[in-house]
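Problem: given the chain below (760 residues), write out its structure.
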Amino acid sequence: MRRGFLSMWKVEFARFFLPAILSGASFGIFLHGYRLIDFFPIDSKSLLFSTLLAGLIGMIGYILLFHWVEKAIIDLSCLQKAGLAGISLLMGAFLFFTATTQWQKNARYFSLFLPKHTLEISIPARAGADAVSISWVTTSLGDVSYTAIDYEGWSLEKDRLVLTNPSNNHLRWVGKTGEKVQIVFETPMQDGNAVISWDGQGETLQFPRKKNTYEHTFEIPFYASQGWILLLGILNCALLSLPLCILGWQMRVEMLQSIQRSFSLTPRQVAQYEWAIIFALMILAFALRLPGLGNLFPSVEEYSHINAAKQITQGASIHDVYQRSMWLVTLPVSFMFRVFGYELSAARLLGVVFNVLAVIPLYLVARRINRPIAVLSVVLFATSPWVIAISRVVREYAYHPFYFFWIVYGMILLLDEIPRGFRIDRDWKIILQPKRFLLLLGLALPPLYALLADPLSTFKLILIAYAVLGLFLLLKVDFRHRKNLPVILLMAGAALVSAYFWHERFSMHLTVNLAPLDYFFLNSAQQWYFDRASIIPLVGLFGAMIFAFLTWRTNLVPAFLLILYAGFLGFFVFSSNRFFAPRHVSTTQLWYIILMAVGGYLIWVFLQTLPLLKNHRNRALVLIILIGLSFNFRYSLLPMTSRDPSMPITQEYHDDLSHLHAFMLSNADEQDVLISSRIYGRYVEWMDEPVFQAMYDFQVQTTEADILSIVDQYESGWIIIDNVRIERAVFSPEKAFQENDRIEYVGLFDGEHVWRWRAR
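Solution.
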């Protein structure tokens, strides 16, 4: 009896407790290195206690989880179990890297196992050595407090250690460093040295400059390294994703039936009541975009379009003004000026109108998946803080959704017209039928416009969609049929030529820039779920990816949109090596919106299969909770309510020039000359006041001689330069103008430095 009990206990221990103990320990170690070291001092008792507590909680949770999992998968085959494990691992990795941010930081260690190192510093005696100081000591784990350092011949003065005894000095510190250590030395002379020893291994640091930064790196054992912490994070996220995957498997029949019913009930023709829904959602979109169009001053690039449009209405040739997005933005804005006068709100209104009209093609695109997803896509588009903010700026990005959705809708129609297993000898006549030929002709116009009519515009990003279209057309071709070989070679050749042309024409070079990922994952300030539970929409996004993969043979639209999203996002990740801003990647948001709608719909279908939610009241309650947890309503209102010059959603700066302009109106004279960086100069051009005898641009490459030659040429004038260009200028304006007796510094007005000069 006793032996039987012990055997059963050993089996239970091996089945549940041992895996739960190991998993709980992995959870504690992961949490220690991923979050707890940000809150508690290294080697502190509170950090150790928190780690043990996290491990204990994890162990208890995993015991319950493993018991439930065993019962849930007992009837599954080994292949099904392996499939669930694989999907859980993929989902765990996806959620780990998209729903958390700490993996981007370098100092992720299991600090209890980090080795300690001993630092010793001495300064050899020499003339002037007593002025040497240490202003900063930092490690990968944080700054080192001077109170933790033992020193002799040094004294602590404010925020630095200053050498007081060159003939007898020594500094010693023992502690955990992580991967890197930095020490900043300051000395009044550009000579001398310091003897630095780590764990008894000495080296000499020369002082070639007055401020010298010393760096030292250490190898980290794998069991304490960031790689180990990340692996444990993925493992724990995968284990926590397992129940969701199992529930999805258990409810798969009901989910598929619900999805199939939804697809089967979506006729090709749009019903009248759907147009009523579209119109209502357009009103919602308009209401979130229209109010307060003039709240913010124009951003720098807005001036380019509004001033060019103004010049055209005054008779200037379209060839003599700013050329970028001439047909897409500038000419339509000039029409608005003719109708409503030179009002900033009129220029911005046109972008809002086009942005709202994009609801129609968006609905038609998403409706090719099903009607609920189409409605949800439009709701997300109408309420997207990012799209709303972009629509209220006089830039081409406000117009892109209208054109891009129509183009992609045409691509989807074309893919529907081309049969699977296409054979050139049998199906070539299909292409020449009037309907399909007109569709092909219409799809040929956007690339011609992007490459020939407006090559400076980012409208050429639509060419990425054409590459995706080519891929899906190629998948329609029967590869086994010999006569299709010329078609396949022709398409492959066209793709290579296009890639080469793109590279040569636009100087694109392969690089890696992870900044675009921040706008779609983590806690993105551009999305509806900013400062909310981003895990919910990201689970939906993962579900949309799986859904697109599983249904591409029956409905290729989800897969087409997924590859569009991946293509646009991948383009920016691997080709952007310059300054990056939300406007650059805003077109990627268009496909992301539909994928998020697919994910939201799948989450709702899954929840409806749960017994608890068979009740309509419970469904409504859960829906309200989900929306509240994952939707930041305040952020959707921010674009039309904010008066902050630094718009957090677009990350554009709308310089408030009201104080400067009022000052200039009171003090400037028609005989004066204006030298200004492009912000105020463009504003004067827009306002038509004050009137100056002449106006000159200040660029970052403008030299001191360029400025002084203008000053010598005219009796009086003004120099106005913003902070950004002062920092980037090839000379120091403050120093240069101070040395000139004609130029007088007036003051700083909202980031704009003002000087003036008068006759001698």
